[in-house]
Design brief:
Blueprint: H1 12-23, H2 38-42, H3 59-62, H4 65-82, H5 85-100, H6 112-115, E1 122-123, E2 126-127, H7 137-253, H8 256-261, H9 263-269, H10 271-274, H11 287-299, H12 312-399, H13 401-418, H14 427-447, H15 450-491, H16 514-526, H17 531-543, H18 549-569
Antiparallel strand pairs: 1-2
Helix pairs in contact: 1-7, 7-11, 12-13, 13-14, 13-17
InterPro entries: CFAP_domain-containing
């Protein structure tokens, strides 16, 4: 009934594993019931960190063990002071949790309930009732007995596991104590050896430092001597240059006749070529350049100078003359000083006036530029608006095709109705005049009585009927006359054709009469058109673009002839 996979007694393999685990570094084992170390991971407790070599400022003070340990304790104390109270509490609580935490023992015992959960609630597939009958008391007692035995076995297994865990912990503890003692012994030896080594290194460093100090003193003395020599050489080079410039100055003070006689000396010294710059000295020249120059001068062949001023009195006379010249110059300057001051003040005022005028001119130019820019923008805006109105509303109101057609149509109607051409009249006045005519005609028609209108209509219809009868009678007589004429001509032997051709309207024309139309159009082109025909053609081109004007003109002529005949008949 009870399967125990965990052994009651630890084997040698388990002891070896415990020893290996004790020797290895501690690692966190994730378990379902493990304590969450989120708060502990955020805060790191202060550890003993060894100082790197680059942070050792003074080796002779920090290498000994006592000073080194003091420095380390000081840094550790500062680090602990920087930690807040809340972080310290988190560190301590996390450390205590990790120490007090004990993992739950492995319990892999399998009971009847693990295999079959409904083992005690049913028998042979039938559920057990709450109140067990009398005949099932034996089975119930057996089940209770088995259940109690199972619990006793589990408790015994747990107590055995506690004993084994205690023994394993004691073994691990003894092993850790032994290892700690070994580490303490090795640490003491390490401290003694490191102290001995540090003291030997300090003694060697002191010896080397003394030697270095002696070498430094020697080098400093040599450097001082070298600096004095260099400064003296530079001073000599400067004095030599001043003497050469002074000699050249005296050469230029000599008269030209003497200089002409001693031209060779000037060429040898390059006085005329170089002038007062005898030595091409620069501020950027180093000591090596100056030393080479002096060496070349010292080891070279000296040139004997040609002297014009042999006595010191001559030089004094020259300087006295220069002094008098300077005095005359200063007196002249003193007399001219107020005028120069007035001139300078005038120049300053003139500059101020010029600056003010230039500023005013610049401001006016800028103002005009702004005004021009504003005018250009306004002009562009007005031009844009003008063209927008011209090509937009004005074009739609005046120059559009519909408006032009309307004007032509109104002019035509005005000319036909009032029998005169509209001169210097706009579209609105023409339309108003036509409207007035229409209103007058409508008033006249309204004034006429209905009986008179009916009589006029009946009379008009009678006239048209009479015209139709006369036309039919005339047509029959004309056909009979043509037939009689044709028969007479045939009787006398003449070949006659049917010359009578009735007038064909547009509906009766055949589709194959294109040739006849083309001939008639050519004949009409040769004829000259009247003014009325030209006006009708202009209207036709505007309103009927896809029709033939010849038919329109024929119908117009026929209507005019019929109207004339009707007037004659009346």
């Amino acid at each position: 009934m009870i399967n125990t996979d965990w052994p009651r007694i630890l084997s040698n393999k388990s002891l070896k594993k415990c020893k290996q685990n004790s020797s290895l570094p501690l690692t966190k084992i994730k378990n379902k019931k493990d304590i969450s170390n989120a708060s502990a991971e955020k805060v790191v407790p202060p550890r003993e960190e060894f100082l790197p070599v680059k942070d050792l400022k003074k080796v002779e003070n920090l290498l000994p063990l006592t000073l080194y340990s003091k420095k380390q304790n000081k840094n550790r104390f500062k680090h602990r002071l920087n930690i807040s109270i809340y972080k310290k509490y988190k560190i301590i609580s996390a450390d205590l949790r990790n120490r007090l935490h004990v993992e739950d023992p492995i319990n892999e015992l399998i009971a009847v309930n693990d295999i079959d959960k409904d083992f005690y609630s049913g028998v042979d597939g039938r559920p057990v009732r709450f109140r067990i009958p009398v005949f099932k008391s034996l089975k119930e007692s057996l089940n209770k007995l088995l259940h109690i035995k199972q619990e006793i076995g589990i408790k015994k297994d747990c107590s055995l596991q506690i004993d084994t865990n205690y023994r394993n912990e004691m073994r691990v503890f003894e092993f850790a104590v032994k290892r700690l003692s070994d580490q303490v012994k090795s640490f003491d030896t390490f401290i003694s050896e490191s102290h001995h080594k540090s003291m030997t290194i300090l003694s060697k460093s002191e010896k080397l430092r003394n030697q270095v100090e002696l070498q430094l003193q020697e080098l400093q003395s040599v450097a001082i001597e070298k600096f004095t020599i260099m400064s003296k050489l530079i001073g000599l080079e400067y004095k030599y240059g001043l003497q050469q410039k002074y000699g050249r100055f005296l050469y230029y003070l000599s008269p030209p006749s003497w200089r002409l006689r001693n031209r060779d000396f000037a060429r040898s010294c390059e006085i005329e070529a170089k002038g007062f710059d005898f030595i091409n000295s620069n501020e950027d020249d180093n000591f090596a350049v100056i030393f080479e120059r002096l060496q070349h001068i010292c080891y070279g062949v000296p040139i004997k100078p040609a002297l014009y001023f042999t006595r010191p009195r001559d030089l004094m006379d020259v300087f006295d003359a220069m002094e008098t010249q300077q005095l005359h110059y200063y007196t002249h300057v003193h007399h001219v000083a107020p005028y120069t001051k007035i001139l300078k003040d005038g120049i300053i005022t003139l500059k101020d006036i010029i600056n003010q005028d230039s500023a005013s001119v610049v401001s006016s130019i800028k103002r005009f530029e702004d005004f021009l820019l504003f005018s250009e923008r306004k002009c562009a805006h007005l031009e844009e608006k003008f063209f927008k109105i011209l090509y937009g509303l004005f074009y739609k109101c005046v120059a559009a095709t519909d408006v032009l057609k309307l004007t032509v149509h109104l002019q035509f109607c005005y000319e036909r109705v009032l029998q005169e051409k509209p001169l210097n009249m706009d579209l609105r006045t023409i339309a108003k005049s036509l409207e007035f005519v229409y209103m007058d005609l409508s008033k006249k028609l309204d004034s006429i009585k209905s009986d008179a209108v009916r009589r006029a209509v009946i009379k008009c219809m009678d006239i048209e009927k009479l015209q139709i009868r006369r036309a039919n009678k005339a047509a029959t007589e004309l056909r009979l006359f043509h037939r009689l004429e044709r028969e007479l001509l045939r009787s006398f032997g003449f070949c006659t054709d049917n010359r009578y051709k009735p007038i064909k309207h547009k509906k009766d024309e055949s589709k194959n009469s294109n040739k006849a139309k083309h001939i008639e159009n050519n004949v009409q082109k040769k004829k000259s058109l009247t003014e009325a025909e030209l006006e009708y053609l202009i209207l036709f081109t505007d309103w009927t673009e896809n029709e033939d004007p010849s038919t329109f003109l024929e119908s117009l002529n026929l209507n005019d002839k019929n109207n004339e005949k009707d007037h004659d008949v009346i």
